[in-house]
Recover the amino acids of this structure.
């Protein structure tokens, strides 16, 4: 046996081995979907899709789940997660809206406008910003931004008017959105920059030869050519923001509350929870079957939305192949 | 009509002029966009500089050698609660396990896809499946991967990975469990780096090897792998920086004991089956979000973490620059997406 292994490998055997290892990745994905779905099933069995609706107090429902033992009654599975869904969409949406212009402008700056030394620095900056651990963003958020917002942006009038519904400590939507924006901008910048770099120089030169200035050329030719790549970058960044757990769990205030636009400016200061941060917050409660099923259902939702978003990102970029612009 | 417009404006342009005077002829809206682009780019620099300077300032303030070399202690006051030696070792251990699983997987998949994935329609289809499933892994949030890990490692046949708790249930949390899931985090960047490197190897190198009578696998071993060494190094560096930065998997799958707690009598295996902490979970637990509420220690550990990230970034920069000198341009998105 050992002799056989020591001899030069035949191509067939090598190929089979490499192929088998490659398929471990497929197996992992399949297992992931199956296991998460199995663990999430009781929630859907008892709630159906009205799981995503609103009704009742979420914190009471979670308390009831935590109080049940190993064999919970069917009533313990009752939960309506609308505030979480709303919080997730709100934070992600606002962060993406903020990050989009910032990312597009700075990628134009990096690829088209910046002098070469500045460009080199900017590439390092983007890579670094993308690799800062989320817990460091969270730490800066909870120790610097949250106290700052609590001391300077929350007025005492807002604090007293909302006294009976929710406490405004500074931890809430605005800090979470700012941090999420900083976290997803480098991703969008990197993808947009690569697409910008792939636009044929002849197109830009053609525009310049027609007498438009550099910025007009960028707007009329380059940006238009990479529009699909910008959309794809936005979609990928959305997926990243949806799945961010640690930062939101640290700076969102961790209260089951749906920020109300009717509160005026205080809306931005109100706490919330997202799906991912809920899982982190209740990781100790995974022993309670009802709560565990709920958290796995959140995970399943995240898994499917990440999957759908990456498919969307792929489909959106298809038209670019037509122009042979890689991106 | 457009042609007259063009020739008119061409005629209006004086033969040579500096960049500054051309800016003066721009419309206000164009100038505003130009300004906005500069502001956006420089604000990214400013944010990065602010983060690094602030962490550096906190590091000078709170980071002491004693913290790095002492183990965490259970204590009422912060003076006696020790440092973060155990989390440091935990981070190193998780990184080792994660890379040890991810690197062979990623390199094998990349080799299979690039070198064997072209013959026939079924094979192309299989290649697509493997590539897209790695993409799905890349897009999956780490908290979902953590819950998935908990689900499989609580199975009874996998009890050897962790240990059996008092109630007879498998605990499912250990260094091995967390490391296995960490390998999923490190897999995509490693795979992409290796695949791109292999695709960039010119075809004539393979053809020359085949012409000399080498088999495919011998070509891979003697020609291709040595020539993509730098790409694999980049991939591993990116994978390591992913692993050390991850918090969610550690919080769910490593059991949240600040000290490394071995399980069972076997010395090495006991640690792997036991629970512990990493720098990221130490920061989380000591921040107001966790139990400890010891901001000084959270800052100190975060500074060490930040230093690691900076060093790894420099390493990637250094490797890719050496590579770019030999083979042309580099892409920014490379490993970070």
């Amino acid at each position: 046996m050992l002799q056989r292994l020591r001899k030069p490998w035949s191509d067939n055997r090598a190929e089979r081995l490499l192929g088998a290892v490659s398929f471990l990745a497929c197996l992992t994905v399949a297992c992931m979907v199956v296991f998460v779905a199995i663990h999430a099933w009781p929630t859907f069995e008892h709630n159906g899709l009205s799981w995503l609706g609103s009704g009742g107090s979420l914190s009471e429902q979670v308390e009831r789940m935590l109080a049940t033992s190993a064999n919970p009654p069917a009533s313990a599975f009752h939960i309506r997660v609308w505030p979480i869904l709303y919080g997730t969409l709100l934070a992600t949406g606002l962060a993406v809206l903020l990050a989009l212009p910032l990312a597009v402008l700075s990628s134009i700056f990096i690829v088209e406008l910046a002098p070469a030394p500045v460009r080199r620095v900017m590439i390092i900056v983007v890579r670094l910003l993308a690799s800062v651990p989320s817990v460091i963003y969270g730490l800066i958020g909870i120790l610097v931004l949250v106290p700052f917002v609590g001391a300077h942006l929350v007025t005492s009038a807002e604090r007293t008017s909302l006294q009976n519904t929710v406490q405004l400590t500074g931890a809430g939507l605005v800090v979470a959105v700012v941090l999420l924006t900083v976290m997803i901008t480098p991703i969008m910048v990197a993808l947009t920059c690569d697409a910008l770099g792939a636009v044929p120089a002849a197109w830009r030169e053609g525009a310049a030869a027609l007498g438009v200035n550099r910025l007009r050329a960028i707007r009329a030719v380059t940006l238009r050519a990479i529009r699909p790549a910008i959309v794809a970058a936005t979609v990928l960044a959305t997926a990243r923001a949806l799945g961010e757990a640690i930062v939101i769990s640290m700076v969102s205030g961790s209260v089951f509350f749906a920020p109300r636009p009717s509160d005026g400016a205080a809306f931005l200061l109100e706490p919330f929870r997202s799906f991912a941060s809920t899982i982190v917050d209740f990781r100790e409660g995974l022993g309670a079957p009802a709560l565990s099923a709920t958290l796995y259902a959140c995970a399943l939702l995240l898994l499917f939305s990440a999957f759908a978003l990456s498919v969307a990102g792929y489909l959106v970029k298809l038209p670019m192949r037509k122009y042979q612009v890689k991106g | 009509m457009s042609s007259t417009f063009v020739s008119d404006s061409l005629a209006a342009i004086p033969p040579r002029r500096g960049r500054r005077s051309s800016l003066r002829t721009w419309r206000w809206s164009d100038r505003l966009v130009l300004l906005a682009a500069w502001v956006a780019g420089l604000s990214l620099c400013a944010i990065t500089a602010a983060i690094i300077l602030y962490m550096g300032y906190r590091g000078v303030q709170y980071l002491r050698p004693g913290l790095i070399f002492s183990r965490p202690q259970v204590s009422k006051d912060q003076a006696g609660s020790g440092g973060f030696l155990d989390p440091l070792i935990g981070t190193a251990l998780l990184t080792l396990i994660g890379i040890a699983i991810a690197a062979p997987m990623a390199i094998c998949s990349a080799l299979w896809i690039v070198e064997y994935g072209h013959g026939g329609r079924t094979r192309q289809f299989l290649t697509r499946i493997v590539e897209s499933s790695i993409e799905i892994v890349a897009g999956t949030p780490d908290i979902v991967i953590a819950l998935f890990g908990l689900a499989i490692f609580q199975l009874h046949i996998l009890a050897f990975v962790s240990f059996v708790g008092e109630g007879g249930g498998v605990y499912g949390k250990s260094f091995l469990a967390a490391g296995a899931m960490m390998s999923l985090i490190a897999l995509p960047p490693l795979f992409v780096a290796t695949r791109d490197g292999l695709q960039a190897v010119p075809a004539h190198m393979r053809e020359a090897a085949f012409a000399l009578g080498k088999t495919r696998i011998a070509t891979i071993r003697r020609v291709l792998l040595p020539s993509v060494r730098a790409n694999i190094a980049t991939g591993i560096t990116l994978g390591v920086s992913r692993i050390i930065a991850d918090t969610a998997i550690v919080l769910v799958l490593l059991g949240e004991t600040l000290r490394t707690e071995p399980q069972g009598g076997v010395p090495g295996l006991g640690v792997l089956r036991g629970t512990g902490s990493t720098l990221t979970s130490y920061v989380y637990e000591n921040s107001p979000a966790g139990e400890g509420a010891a901001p000084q220690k959270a800052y100190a550990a975060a500074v060490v973490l930040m230093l690691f990230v900076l060093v790894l970034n420099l390493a990637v920069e250094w490797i890719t620059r050496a590579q770019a000198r030999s083979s042309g341009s580099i892409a920014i998105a490379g490993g970070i997406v």
Remarks:
- Chain A has a mean pLDDT of 87.
- The two ends of chain A are 48 Å apart (CA to CA).
- The CA atoms of residues 216 and 300 of chain A lie 45 Å apart.
- The first helix of chain A runs from residue 2 to 6.
